Amino acid sequence: MAGNAGTDAVILVGGQGTRLRPLTLSAPKPMLPTAGLPFLTHLLARIADAGISHVVLGTSFKAEVFEEHFGDGAELGLELEYVTETEPLGTGGGIRNVLPRLRADNIMVFNGDVLGGTDLGAILDTHESTNADVTLHLVRVSDPRAFGCVPTDEDGRVTAFLEKTQDPPTDQINAGCYVFRREYIEKIPVGRPVSVEREVFPALLAEGARVQAHVDSSYWRDMGTPEDFVRGSADLVRGIAPSPALPGQRGESLVHEGAGVAPGAVLIGGTVVGRGAEVGAGARLDGAVLFDGARIEAGATVERSIIGFGARIGPRALVRDAVIGDGANIGARCELLRGARVWPGVQIPDGGIRFSTDV
User: Fold this and answer.
1) Is the peptide bond before 22 cis (omega within 30 degrees of 0)?
2) Which ranges constitute the DSSP H helices of the chain?
């Protein structure tokens, strides 16, 4: 669809990714491998698919990594530019900070942490057809208590922005994707931290701007925690979450070229085996995310966990709901459960950490 060439995209990727440590000590969260590609690749492919070609990345933490990987964006059919924040400016300040690079009258803004499946063209159609000043993508979720919710009137106009509450009046939440008319970005205060949710949007409502909602029930997941990261990656592998960057067959596992999987190993639950990774005989991987060069020895079990670059899990070890940092070495028969995090390069001897008494 070339119909959206008059729209620019902005992606905010400045976060530190603290909830995903230790993985984000070495790489910013949007660059972590998700179904074998840097997470941001999936969003960039969706933007290109919607006919938007000019994209500005608002970066701060490890800013240089993005440009080193994506360059000018030509491989994705995009024109990419980069703007680095020197001090944190919040979501609103981050959008205002990239204004000098924006050319179009309509600006589509994305939170770089979200894995989504909505039709971007449909959001832009809502923005145009309602003659909105700002349009928000809202997604319906089964449990909105963990999110700010956004009620709308019968015309689909936003009536309020509510903080997280135990008794939400609506199941519509802010999905982290907005379309701004350019003049409303120009109004955001410059040179200081500004929150879109707490400052910009309430001010728009107060001045009577037309703030429209595009509501759907599309795939949506904030990838900020290890649990969500593992589930989002698995959903991409299994075809539950759509991505134009992943052509081909969906299934229970995705094994990259150069990886070795021994006979008798079981790979299920949307497991990803990275490039050059090794999986030993009789190992069981269920919803595991193995970064490039990871090694899972014979008889080990890895469930719903992220195994960092070059990390090793010893024979008959059990890793469940855990994050193992780059280059860590987990000895035979160790048990790491329930949110365990092992920092990069740490060595745990055979049988060194257990949750059960038998060895």
Assistant:
1) yes
2) 39-49, 64-70, 90-97, 120-129, 182-186, 201-206, 226-238
- DSSP single-letter state for residue 53: -
CA nearest neighbour of 195 among 176, 210, 211, 181: 176
d(CA 199, CA 66): 29
Q: Are 79 and 72 contacting, i.e. CB atoms less than 8 angstroms apart? A: yes
Higher pLDDT, 143 or 238: 238
CA 175 from chain centre, in angstroms, equals 12
Cα 123–31–174 angle (5° rounding)?
30
Confirm if 128 and 108 have CB atoms less than 8 A apart. Answer: no
**How far apart (Å, rounded) are the C-alpha atoms in residues 324 and 277?**
15
pLDDT digits 0-9 by tens, 47-65: 999 999 999 988 876 778 8
User: SS3 of 175, please?
Assistant: strand
Which positions are catalytic?
A: 164
- 281 vs 50: CA distance, rounded Å: 44
Q: Per-residue pLDDT for 30 more than 50? A: yes
Q: 179: left (phi > 0), else alpha (psi -120 to 50), else beta?
A: beta
As a whole number of angstroms, the distance between CA 70 and CA 239 comes to 25
Mean pLDDT of 53-78: 87
CA distances from 50 to 45, 119, 123 (A): 9, 8, 10
Q: Which residues contact 129 (CB under 8 A, 6 or more apart)?
A: none
Q: Which residue type sits at 290?
A: L
Helix 120-129 and helix 39-49: axis angle, to 10°?
Answer: 50
Q: What strands, in cross-sheet order, belong to the sheet with 306-307?
A: 253-255, 271-273, 289-290, 306-307, 323-324, 341-342
